[in-house]
Amino acid sequence: MTNAEIIKAAFEVWGREFYLNTSLSQIARELGVSKPALYRHFRNKQALLDAMKRYFFDDFTSFIRADYEKALRGEGRECVFILIRAIAEYYARNVHGFIFSLIRLYDHRTGTRDSEEELKSRGVDLGQFHLRIEKNYTYDPMIMNMIFVTLTFYMAVFHKQGKSFTNPPSDEAISKRISTITEIIERGFGYNNKDVGALDYEGLEKSVAEKVENLEDDPLLKAVAAAVADAGPWDASMEQVARRSGLSKSSLYGHFKSKQDMLHRLFITEFMRIIDFARQGMEQSRVQQEQLYLGVFSIALYLRSKTDILVAMDWVRTRRFDFKKRADEKEFMKRNSCETESAEWEEGPPPELTKLFEAIEINPLQSGEITGDSGRRQISHWILFLIINILMRPGGSKKIKNEDIRYLYRFITLGIKGFEK
């Protein structure tokens, strides 16, 4: 047994669990060895995670370096997409590396903040790439963030739909997904630049801002959200919620059947409130471009005003969380005035979110992947994913200004074409 074999097993075993559990015992069972045998190679779990980090950056930079250098040497806007396609291909062909980067490197709680330095030390200086982008686009760090968030989201959908852990994707499927990602990054919904620029953003924002002040919290769910924001959904306990709510643990069981039921109630209730608030905002206009902005701004405003809910939602964004339909789901949705679908759903927002932007015009992509109901499901989740990511940027959601949400809307509707010089 070698270090490389242990590292490979760690990527596979912990990746299947989305790093929810990172036990050396799991690795030992996978390799068919005793746990003490692992200690001869790695003194503890953190040492193994550090080795995985080094392996990831070595492998990642080796894969993209030639395209990175080509992008720096080239001219024109196409050079920007040379590196984007290279990164997308790496993640498409390496599902375990993709999950590791998503969970261990970019998660706001467990991830490291020195990824760019790690890349730079291996010959891939993203600072130089940013300078290359500035030749053709109005550069802002937020734009780069939206580009990579979009790449991450659509790659996650690709691996989930293709069940890549057990079915490695074909070259044809990878090529098609890369085309889809680059199209979305390049032109978004394909709206008209003039129409997007002509919106009365300030007036639209004012019409929504007046409503957020009337939002009321359920005190018990607020206590649950605070516990989840502090400890994460897996480590948040009934005891923590009891202390925050002023109730006894036994009293909580009068409200929730179990910890899983408690978490389920929190996320579903908040998702439905977000959807309802966004729909109220969209009703302020009959113009599609305005409706879309009102929906985007409403979601951002709701989450910006509820910090604990935002952090709780971010756990869903970066980790797999079990949302399997419960036996009493129909009754629960009925109590909360929500419609539901007969099919089971899991690992994400409820199906009602997919209907939020169903009336919004989306120009079809040449790749043909983002079409019909499935495409609209992806679009709605993509928008929510973008909003949460932007609000979770360093500095806190309170520092995200309305102008940042306008930037986000421009990216959604126009892609980076909306930022061309």
Describe the structure.
The protein has helices at 3-16, 24-31, 35-39, 45-73, 78-93, 95-105, 115-121, 126-134, 141-162, 171-187, 193-197, 201-212, 219-231, 238-245, 249-252, 259-282, 288-305, 307-318, 329-335, 372-391, 402-414. It is mostly helical. The N and C termini lie far apart (55 Å). Mean pLDDT is 82; it is low at 108-112 and 320-347.
Write out key terms for the chains shown:
0% strand; Tetracycline Repressor, domain 2; mainly alpha; 421 residues; 65% helix
Summarize this structure briefly.
With 421 residues, the protein is an all-alpha fold. 65% of the residues lie in helices and 0% in strands.
Strand content: under 5%
Residue runs with pLDDT of under 50 for 5 or more positions: 108-112, 320-347
- The helix content, as a percent range, equals 55-70%
Radius of gyration (Å)? 22 Å
Span of the ends, CA to CA: 55 Å
H and E order: HHHHHHHHHHHHHHHHHHHHH
Q: Based on CA inertia axes, which overall geometry fits?
A: globular
Q: Give the CATH level 1 class of the largest domain.
A: Mainly Alpha
CATH topology of the largest domain: Tetracycline Repressor, domain 2
Structural class: mainly alpha
Q: Helical element count?
A: 21
Largest sheet: none
Q: Strand tally, please?
A: 0
User: How would you name the CATH homologous superfamily of the largest domain?
Assistant: Tetracycline Repressor, domain 2
Count of distinct structural domains: 2
